[in-house]
Amino acid sequence: MADVSAVVLVGGFGTRLRPVTYAVPKQLVPLAGQPMLFHAMDLLPSPVTRITLACGYKAEAFEAYLSQHPYRLPVKVVREAVPLGTGGGLLNGSVGASDPFVLVNGDVISGLDMDPMLEFHLQHGGVGTMSFYEVDDPSPYGVAVWDSEQRITNFVEKPPRESAPSRWINAGASIWSRELLKEIPAGREVSLEKEVLPRLLDQGVYGFPFRGWWEDAGTPSRLLNAQRLLFDHPRVGRFTPRCHLPGAQVIPQVATGKGCEAAGATVGRYVTLGDRVQIGRGAVVEDSVLMDGAVVGDRAEVRRSILGPGYHVEAGAKVHDRCLANEGPAPKP
Ligand code: GDD
Ligand code: MG
Predict the structure, then answer these.
(1) Which residues are marked as active site?
(2) Domain count of the chain?
(3) How many CB atoms sit inside 10 A of residue 244's CB?
(4) Whose CA is nearest to atom 13 of ligand 1?
(5) Residue 126: which domain range?
(6) What is the mean pLDDT of the chain?
(7) How many CB atoms lie within 10 A of CB 76?
(8) Beta strand 312-313 with 266-268: parallel, antiparallel or unpaired?
(9) In a shared domain, residues 226 and 279
(10) Using a 6 Å CB cutoff, which residues line ligand 1?
């Protein structure tokens, strides 16, 4: 196929990852050595040649990051003046989209292979093809059922667990005909999942179930699980994490940015350090993400935690199961 484009949604506030997301948008938090966003973009099928990032909250942070760290495909940043929701954000970011185009939520990581999914979509037609993954508790997600032809017959966003129609959840990666865009009301906030999708089913939307691994990195515990999955399932031919920590005891997998120091400390397993992170002697950092400039004092312990840029952990402190950052909520005007 010639020229397939993708829209990646990254405009949410990341409320479930506060206070870290007061400092950095959710999709720029690094996992296994590169931002969540880059892992989401790595999911795109191989015919994709260009990407539009549908941004809202902290759009300038995406522009700044991408100008310093270009992705392997061209990425255009499109901003919303007010939050438009997943549907409105898609519409705003869809100028010049190909037919069909690919849509991915910027906070999903997965072993899904979208190449056969694109083939499936081209063969079956219909308005769209959505990927689905089976979980025990579907209630925090969109849930669907489909018929013997894989045509979705019911889709409910975030149903109560007892009334969920199945355990197959919207995995946040889909392929759409441009017909979808006509169904999204312009100029206001629209939830694609709650408002548009249920009305669209009559026109033919297909389910593409897959197994393997998947996570939505939208909460601290899910984010750390996403990182473990990414370390355990490197994507062939894509990014390989690097680790440079002279004098430290490293328990793989560990990914480090530039200029980190951890002599005399134990780091790993499953740790990402941003740039210039300092870890003191006798300290232990495990199953965690420490962003640029974070400092861990001597003999401190950081386990199952996310530390925002420049966050300091005092010598000897124990930080377990925490999501911490220097930035608090912006003062009310
Ligand atoms: N541009 C833009 N504008 N993007 C937005 C907005 C907005 O107003 N609101 C949310 N987004 C982005 C988020 O930043 C995220 O990357 C993506 O859209 C999905 O939003 P989430 O807030 O993470 O949604 P969710 O995880 O509760 O549910 C969605 O994802 C699940 C799978 O991960 C739904 O699509 C569910 O159906 C799905 O199962
Ligand atoms: Mg999400």
Answers:
(1) 158
(2) 2
(3) 14
(4) 12
(5) 4-232
(6) 96
(7) 15
(8) unpaired
(9) no
(10) 9-12, 54, 56, 80, 83-86, 89, 105-108, 141-142, 157, 169-170, 172, 193, 216, 218
> Structure pTM?
0.96
326 CA distance to ligand 2 middle (Å): 24
Q: How far is CA 14 from CA 1, 26, 154, 213, in A?
A: 35, 5, 28, 22
Q: For the sheet with 254-256, list strands across it.
A: 254-256, 271-273, 288-290, 306-307, 323-324
Given a cut of 80, is residue 327 above it in pLDDT? no
pLDDT above 60 for 333: no
pLDDT of residue 238: 78
User: Is the model's pLDDT at 328 over the cut of 90?
Assistant: no
For 233-249, the pLDDT digits (tens) are: 988 777 888 999 999 99
Domain CATH number, residue 283: 2.160.10.10
Average of pLDDT values for 167-182? 98
Atom 19 of ligand 1, nearest CA residue: 105
Cβ pair 283, 297 in contact under 8 A = yes
Q: Which DSSP category does 245 fall into?
A: -
pLDDT of residue 235: 80
CA of residue 36 to ligand 2 center, whole Å: 11
Q: Name the closest-CA residue to atom 3, ligand 1.
A: 11
Please check whether residues 296 and 194 belong to one and the same domain. no
